[in-house]
């Protein structure tokens, strides 16, 4: 076999290799994680939603939540190809405190996390942010802004969430494919720059 042909074929194959990255989509209860993954996934998303019961309604804080009838009890899963080289596997975690034990398994092998934030319930994000930081996962903040929700400046959000200067903050609508994809791209760019610095 011609060695030159073999090396050229090897380069060609290397160019076709895709990098798969595990990304967590996290946030407090009813912030839009399932919607976000469903909007972006190029495959039918795996969902583990159950109908909320009266017993659950007594545990979960529904204040500020409109039309919530189901809740994730294990995880959501979707896939998004960002480029010829990069595929993202999106794992959505349950937002309630009673499902915190699921987190340890979910965080294994995760490259980063996109934390969805409801602009009406910023305080509800603290517990989730604490968990992400506990597991040492780099993250970006995506404010899920939808009809009628209040608008905050980036400076106000950074102060309210006590963010480091380098933490990306973007606004999206989990129902909108373009803005949701831009939120993920902001996270990926941050992770890439983070990796280069290390």
From TrEMBL:
CDD domains: Ras_like_GTPase. It holds the Pfam family ATP_bind_1. SUPFAM superfamilies: P-loop containing nucleoside triphosphate hydrolases. The keyword Nucleotide-binding applies. It comes from the Bacteria. Keywords: GTP-binding, Hydrolase, Nucleotide-binding. Belongs to the GPN-loop GTPase family. This is ATP/GTP-binding protein. It comes from Streptomyces millisiae.
